[in-house]
Amino acid sequence: MLVFYGGTLFISWRISKKRENADSYMTAGNKIGFGISAASMTATWIWASSMYASATSGYQYGISGPIHYGLWGALMILLIYPFGRRIREVAPRAHTIAEVMFARHGRSSQLMLAGSNILGSVISLTSNLIAGGALIHLLSPLSFQAGILIIAGGILLYTLWSGFRASVLTDFAQVMAMLGAVIIIIPVIFFAAGGPSMFEAGAANLTPQQSNFFSSEAFLNQGAPYVAAVLAYAIGNQTIAQRLFAVRKDLIKPTFVTATFGYGATIIGIGMLGVMALYLGITPLEGDVNNLIPQMAATYLSPILLALFFIMIIGSLSSTADSDLSALSAIMMADVYGQNVAGRKKANPKTMLLVGRVTMVVAMAAGLYFATAQFNILDLLVFVGALWGTLVFPVIASFYWEKVTNAAFTVSVIAAMAIFLPVRFGWIEMTTPIGIATDILSTIGIGVVLGLMAFGFFGRRPAMITGIVSTVIAAPFTIGFLHEYAVLSGSLVAYAVSTVVCWAMSVRSGATFDFGVIKERTGDFDTRTEDDLVPTQEGK
Prior knowledge:
InterPro entries: Na/Glc_symporter_sf, Na/solute_symporter, Sodium:Solute_Symporter. It comes from Micrococcoides hystricis. By secondary structure, the protein is mostly helical. It has helices at residues 2-16, 22-27, 34-45, 48-61, 64-90, 97-104, 107-139, 144-160, 163-192, 197-201, 216-236, 238-246, 252-280, 292-300, 303-341, 349-371, 377-400, 406-425, 432-458, 460-478, 486-507, 517-521, 530-533. The two termini are 35 Å apart. Residues 533-540 have low confidence and may be disordered.
């Protein structure tokens, strides 16, 4: 750990000597190349939580669990580039999606998007600390609390001074270590645990659904909710948006296509550790499924390979945690201080940097506080994805449709949230009329999700056909029972309500909007030249 965090701190220290400005602290000058950006996107999304959650899915649902988790997660990354090109076209030098929403609509839509990202990044940071703390507790004499303190201190030290640039440059080294470790570790554990004979000997440990590659239980509880969540992550997540604004505009497509394959292969492979644990009849240590991956490693790996495994997990959680810190700092710098406190023209770059660094410290402290509760990682991820689902249609429509108004955006998100929460957490009894109404909304949500995916790649007409046809085909199979799956229903209802309300309030609004003004309303806060950033001899 000293070597790992010492190395990342050295990289950050070397960057900090370049005296970067406030905009570079958030987006690295909007000109990162293909290699660094693809590695950073891959490393950011191959986080410890996704590894642990994929293994949990394999342990709960069998062979199809990791495939549902990894395949749809990879699809999320792929979905970014068609929408990303449009976002960069209208706002080439923005720092956050919320900043663009301020330019497009005003303060309420901006704060909704910024607020959801603050919540999402703190939850993400918390789950990564939980993963690291569990690993250190299992593989060393240190306690869980000591483990999360060490992880938090190491990440904060190397991210604090150089911000986003430190995050993306350390991501490159971290993803190389992660991919190398995965290629070696998974086969070693597989053969050490018995190889192909494991599946024959342990078949009795599986239920019929767990042994079924096309398990309906796995699809309805894991696959389908994640399909709904991935589009929300692609559009709403600031860690992704930050890389979208940082990479060169002409490299958006190859960057995210490359990250798609890297993420999918790695996460499905790691998830197979959960499947192996299921076949072997292993009970998670202390009853906590978050312990499955380190438990398998500690049981079947030699000390040298165990050290390699440790680097893989620490690298994965660090690469995402530093991205969360960078995302939170950008939101507080650009959306809170830059636009709502000081104002774009009066924002002081030095104060912005101070705000960004203080944000990182406060966010890490909050992550440490919540990490002591040791939430279930899979539940956290699905909840945040569904929460962002309320924003997907209003955000996407705001980049393409000039009729969307601030009132339509705001009311649709609030209405979707008001219905999502009671459905997701069972606050209302699903009697027959309420259950049927929920199923109808969920079925409309299926059409919305598939239609928006089609829109990204093929345009408006294919999207409308896809949405209508998929809704009609799904209705006979979903109305009457879908409300029994609260996670899936909650996500789909969020999409449906926000879409219907936003469309209904916008279609007859008569509003028009010139997308060209977004370029004028977004852009650099720090206009100091390179000469301004280099101290004079007298200053030294």
